[in-house]
Amino acid sequence: MESIELLLNRQSNPALAAPAPVGDDFTNIIKAGMRVPDHAGLIPWHFTVVQGEALATLANVFVDAVKAQGVTDEAKLQKTSKMPFRAPMIIVISTKYQQHEKVPYKEQLISAGCAAHAMQMAAYALGFGAMWRTGDLAFNEDVKRGLNISIEEDIAGFLYIGTPTKQLPTKPEKPFDDHVTFF
Ligand SMILES: Cc1cc2nc3c(=O)[nH]c(=O)nc-3n(C[C@H](O)[C@H](O)[C@H](O)COP(=O)(O)O)c2cc1C
C-alpha cells in the first residue's frame, strides 16, 4: 500500500475478531509505535498488551472499577464486562512521564497519542483493523491500578486490534476550508 493512500484513506473499524496480529506483524506494529516524534528522546509511553485470558482479567478490572463508582445496574455491568472482548487484542497506550526542563508533560502525552495513531496505521497497513477508544475507564484510577499503570500516568487510549469482520464503506473526505488558513 502506498503511504499516501494509507494516510488519505485510513479509518477505524470497530468490527474486529481473531486472529490478532502475531509474529512479525505484531512486532512491526509495536515498532511503528516506538518510531513516533519524541522530543528529547524521552520515550514517554508504555504499551500494555492484553490478549487471550488477560481480556477476561481486564473485564474484571473494568467491572470492579464501575462497581466501585457505585453502579449496581446489572445491564450496565454486563455491558462493561463485554467491552474488552470487542477485539482479540488491546494495546493500552499509557504515558511514562519523564521530568525534563524543555519537554512538558502535555508534549509527552501528545507523543503517546502519536504512538497510538502509528500503531493503528501499521495495523491497517498490514490488513488488520483497529479502533482507538478511551471512555471513562481510561481516566479511572482503579483501572490504572488493575493494569499496573501508576495513577500519575495517563492512559492515552485502548487500541483494539483484530481482523475486520466487516469491510466498512469508505467515509467521505472532510472538507478542510474552515480548518486551514494561510498566515
Ligand atoms: C483519544 C481518542 C479517544 C477515542 N475514544 C473513543 C471511544 O471511547 N469510543 C468511540 O467510539 N470512539 C472513540 N474515539 C474515536 C474513534 O477512534 C474514531 O476515530 C472515530 O470513530 C472516527 O472514525 P475514523 O477514525 O474512522 O475517522 C476516540 C478517538 C481518540 C483520538
UniProtKB/TrEMBL annotation:
<comment type="similarity">
    <text>Belongs to the nitroreductase family.</text>
</comment>
<dbReference type="InterPro" id="IPR026021">
    <property type="entry name" value="YdjA-like"/>
</dbReference>
<dbReference type="InterPro" id="IPR029479">
    <property type="entry name" value="Nitroreductase"/>
</dbReference>
<keyword id="KW-0521">NADP</keyword>
<dbReference type="InterPro" id="IPR052530">
    <property type="entry name" value="NAD(P)H_nitroreductase"/>
</dbReference>
<protein>
    <recommendedName>
        <fullName>Putative NAD(P)H nitroreductase</fullName>
        <ecNumber>1.-.-.-</ecNumber>
    </recommendedName>
</protein>
<keyword id="KW-0520">NAD</keyword>
<feature type="domain" description="Nitroreductase">
    <location>
        <begin position="24"/>
        <end position="162"/>
    </location>
</feature>
<keyword id="KW-0288">FMN</keyword>
<keyword id="KW-0560">Oxidoreductase</keyword>
<dbReference type="Pfam" id="PF00881">
    <property type="entry name" value="Nitroreductase"/>
</dbReference>
<dbReference type="InterPro" id="IPR000415">
    <property type="entry name" value="Nitroreductase-like"/>
</dbReference>
<keyword id="KW-0285">Flavoprotein</keyword>
